[in-house]
Amino acid sequence: MTEHYDSLLVKLDEIETRYNEIEEMISTPEIAADSARLIALSKEQGKLKSIVAKYRKYKKAEIGIKEAEQILAEGDAEEDLKMLAEEESQQLTKQASDLLEDIAGRLVMADDMDVDSIIVEIRAGTGGEEAALFARDLYGMYTKYAESRKWKVESLDFSSSEKSGFREVIFSIKGPGVWSELGYEGGGHRVQRVPQTESQGRIHTSAATVAVLPEPEELDIQIAPDDVIEHVSRSSGPGGQNVNKVSSAIKLEHIPTGITVSMQEEKSQHKNRAKAWRLLRSRVYEHFQSQKRAERDSKRRSMIGSGDRSQKIRTYNYPQNRVTDHRINLSLYSLDKIMTGDMDELIAALKNYDKEQRLKNL
Predict the structure, then answer these.
(1) 248-295 pLDDT tens trace
(2) Which of 295, 123, 306, 292 shows the shortest CA–CA distance to 221?
(3) 225-295 has CATH 3.30.160.20 classification
(4) Are the beta carbons of 19 and 45 closer than 8 angstroms?
(5) 4 band by pLDDT with thresholds 50, 70 and 90
(6) What is the pLDDT of residue 337?
(7) Taken in order 327, 333, 335, 340, is the CA torsion positive or negative?
(8) Which of 2, 216, 258, 355 has its CA at a distance of 20 to 30 angstroms from the CA of residue 105?
(9) What are phi and psi of 279, to 5 degrees?
(10) Which residues of 23-41 are buried (b: 16+ CB within 10 A; e: fewer)?
(11) Reduced to 3 states, what is the DSSP secondary structure of residue 209?
(12) What is the dihedral of CA 17, 12, 31, 219, to 10 degrees?
């Protein structure tokens, strides 16, 4: 293999050593008796398993290559045997190269693949009612894509506008690899089209912002109850008599970061509290993850954009039936399909570009 992969092979040796260590630790009575530790180690082992399996296949192929080369180096070897050895060497060299390329790709994308639950927040930006309708259209695009992947969508909170648009909508999506597919959606989205309310047929530009947060498991982030102040109040807005009589709205304030979360969609205080805690965990987790990314990205660039809501990432041009992703200079003339959830080509292009960048920085 080329020198390009030398550092990767060192990394893979370390991963295999760690995998073997975990295997030994799990079999000890001390770990078996400690359920929290056992779950954490099993989870870590699960993440490494497929990479280790492929690395072992790679090492087996390398042994086969060396054996074939030894036969070819022997001066008195029969011609038929040399031909077989030559063929074997070529096949195994290709196999080893393909395995290493696949491993490298899995390694740089592994953390993303492990996140199977996200929280998406869409907010209408500049453009008034048209921006709220665009926010609703984005919500439809993501939920239809999720349905096509058989992922589970759950509404957490929303605020509607006068013409049935969304001033804000917060929802979760759960499914295998959901973060690796939709993690690139965070940022500013811009639409160019003739609004329903426009009588002169003029094209308007409106905007919405999207935040995509990985939803951590409770094992991944521990928030001390003492660090959170809870406020309980009566819900406001439409919803009948219950809204005004029962104190069901929940507001959580995380003291160390200053992050606040409000939830009043449910009539049940208990359900609002559970949803608010999920959202708080995601926002606090993302807060600390973004700090880590900032430290890491000061040393190397690997992600597509920052995911910052102020960063314009995509334009949806209805008159031209065109979607342009500004981060990778990609234009697709299939806006009608994309808005109905057919996002495969767009997401594949983003993933491939990101993978290439990460491999360069490996």
Answers:
(1) 889 999 999 999 999 887 788 889 999 999 899 888 988 887 777 666
(2) 292
(3) yes
(4) yes
(5) low
(6) 97
(7) negative
(8) 216
(9) -70, -40
(10) eeeeeeeebeeeeeeeeeb
(11) strand
(12) 160
Question: How far from each other are the two terminal CA atoms of the chain, in whole angstroms?
Answer: 16
What's the pLDDT score for residue 34? 87
Residue with token string 């239809």: 144
The number of C-alpha atoms within 13 Å of 244 and in the hemisphere containing its C-beta is: 4
Other CB atoms within 10 A of residue 83 CB? 11
Q: What are the DSSP calls for 14-50, one per residue?
A: HHHHHHHHHHHHHTSHHHHH-HHHHHHHHHHHHHHHH
* Domain locations in the chain as residue ranges: 3-113, 117-219+307-360, 225-295
Average pLDDT value for residue range 10-28: 92
- One-letter amino acid identity for 53? A
Which residues share a beta bridge with 208? 124, 189
Per residue in 214-245, pLDDT (tens digit) is 887 655 677 888 899 999 887 665 444 444 45
Instruction: Assess whether pLDDT exceeds 90 at residue 79.
Output: no
Q: What angle do CA 250, 255, 260 make, to 5 degrees?
A: 40
Burial class (CB within 10 angstroms; exposed 0-12, middle 13-18, buried 19+) of 116: middle
> Structure tokens of 95?
């196999």
The token duo for 239 is: 């919803």
Q: CB–CB of 133/179 below 8 Å? A: no
CATH tag, 117-219+307-360: 3.30.70.1660
Asked if residue 299 has pLDDT above 50, the reply is: no
Looking at this protein, which amino acid is placed at residue 220? D
Residue 215 C-alpha from the chain's centroid: 10
